[in-house]
Amino acid sequence: MCGLAGSSASPEGFLARAVRLLRHRGPDGDGEWRERDGRFGLAHTRLAIIDLSAAAAQPMVSDCGRFVIAFNGEIYNFRSLRAELEAKGVRFRSDSDTEVLLALLKSEGTSGLSRAVGMFAFALWDKERRELLLARDRLGIKPILYAPLAGGGIAFASEIRALKEHPGIDFGIDPAALSEYLACLYVPAPRTIHLGIRKLPPGHWLRWRDGKTEIAPYWRPRIAGGRAATPDEAAEEVLPLLRQAVSGCMIADVPVGCFLSGGLDSSVVAALMAEEARRLGAPPPMTFTMTFPEAAYDERSAAARVAAHIGSRHMELPADPASAISADTLAVAFGEPFGNPTALLVSALSQAARAHVTVALVGDGGDEVFAGYPRYQGGRWARAYRRLPAWLRETVVAPLAEHIPESRRGFHGSRRAREFLTGANRPDPEMYAGWVEYFAPEERRRLLGLAANPARPIAELYAEAPSPDPLDAMQQTDLLSFLPGNLLAYGDAMSMAHSLELRLPLLDHRAIEAIGGLAPDTRVRGGLKAVLRAVARRLLPAEIARAGKRGFNPPMGVWLDGALKGLIAERLTPGSVAAMGLAWEPVAELLALQARGGRDVALKVWALLALDGWRRTA
């Protein structure tokens, strides 16, 4: 795992400053490469994972001298690709996956991306054509950002902070991005908070030449299945794919461990890791679990049972609300406002794990791929609910539901009931957007002083889904929005802040394609995550395979009522709110609701604290 940056202009000192700012992504080495005319340049910082020798250093130049690559990520099938290329006469100087990717791109161009299995973001420079190729992996596990320059030039980097060292970029605030942040608690691709910087979307490549930029997709998830099967039949198909994915993710020349929450997703990954370690005759993996004093959030006992079952070397790390006070430093890692407080936990867990391993496998993506969120059932129930008379739903049930009290201690049933009864009357795209958005359009209109309600990016994505089935459309939407913009963004930023590489075997695109082809009823037959539960029954104790979902989240409602209460009064003042570009009156109303209780608005309050933290560090 690494960091990269570059520019078609390469102003004096930019590459060196980018290397310094990206050192946390790659503390084991760095390099710079420039064209002879001094214009185009590449910089790279290296976290050595595969082939620790100097032969794998980057930027790497092809054997013919024509191509130069700076690569961040891992190609898990590099050994089979290498064998194919060697059969065609290609000779290699290192044992690295970087050199295999370079040879593949040299041979096949962008069509080679469809054969690479892994997570990646890279910049490839063609010296002969003076052409730049940027690409990002299918799901968006690894980030890459770019900025158009005056005169048709381009700059790019793994993180916003590196691009801030480049002159000529418009760092003004994008008002549409600010609105989308308030809706999603992250800024969805292709926007960033800055007008002049864009995210390359997942599964896309960008080609730049002679001042002209072309962007195109090479892969997109498709959840539009019609193939009927029982969950057990589907598990027989999926389990070999997951074994293959975990095996690939364990390839490393450094220690590898696993984040184990005790939930279904990470437990399946940990069990498959232990199985692969036994097959290889290797020591059992290390597993790392975060613990909470609040029972609704704590899964230590389940994690301990899994660890005992698979024989892992297990460590527990207590969650600490004091970590939230360092939110300003987290804002530096993202380079833009980011409001999901789970990032705090991933940062602390990554820091602790890094003392023991360089790579950690995680179960992220299991809910999106295998249909694990309770809202997925809600989307399916909504069509049946709408068969009730409209007058009953709209004039009786919905108004009464607004008064359902909510827990602020991690028990979400009443909140979900209220959201279902008030939202299920709307068309599917608006209903789903209402369930996953935080600040609703009317709230954003008031906060931002807009004349009309702002756009709803989630509703737009939902409406574009290839299948009209609610489960298909919800999963499709999450794979293109919530997953890359939220979960994968904080996973990358927080792990790389501590020079730890996270690998995500449940996001192997071959498994996603298999699940996407299954009929919706198969995916949730007998309950959420039916296929993964059928997989788990083959690997884990029965109580783990059938356990309900808790989620890996901090008890933010408890923290804001207790240890962080003073932070609200200190940071969310009329002056600071005005400096964020927001109106004070709706914020004051939100803070009064937070103080009064009865409604769980903790994540909205935290989103404003995170926005203020970014403002102070930008």
**Beta-strand percentage range:** 5-15%
Number of helices: 28
Kindly report the average pLDDT value: 93
User: How many domains in all?
Assistant: 3
Radius of gyration: 24 Å
Q: Within the largest sheet, what's the order of strands?
A: 2-3-1-9-8-10
Description of the molecule:
- The longest helix has 19 residues, at 231-249.
- The chain has 618 residues and is an alpha+beta fold.
- It folds into three domains: 2-217, Glutamine Phosphoribosylpyrophosphate, subunit 1, domain 1, CATH 3.60.20; 231-371 and 478-545, Rossmann fold; 555-618, no CATH class.
- It is globular.
- Helix 2 crosses helix 3 (97-108), helix 7 (264-280) packs parallel to helix 8 (300-310) and helix 12 (374-385) packs antiparallel against helix 18.
Summarize this structure as a short list of keywords or feature phrases.
618 residues, alpha+beta, Glutamine Phosphoribosylpyrophosphate, subunit 1, domain 1, 6-stranded antiparallel beta sheet, 17 strands
Quick structural gist:
The chain has 618 residues and is α+β, with helices and mostly antiparallel strands.
Secondary-structure map:
Blueprint lengths: L1 E6 L6 H8 L7 E6 L6 E6 L13 E2 L5 E9 L2 H10 L9 H12 L9 E9 L4 E6 L8 E4 L5 E4 L2 H4 L11 H10 L13 E2 L4 E6 L2 E6 L13 H19 L6 E4 L4 H17 L5 E6 L8 H11 L2 E6 L8 H8 L7 H13 L4 E3 L4 H5 L3 H12 L4 H12 L11 H11 L4 H9 L4 H8 L8 H7 L6 H11 L1 H15 L4 E3 L5 H8 L3 H4 L6 H7 L5 H4 L10 H6 L3 H7 L2 H6 L4 H13 L5 H16 L1
Parallel strand pairs: 13-14, 13-16, 14-15, 16-17
Antiparallel strand pairs: 1-3, 1-9, 2-3, 4-5, 5-6, 6-7, 7-11, 8-9, 8-10, 11-12
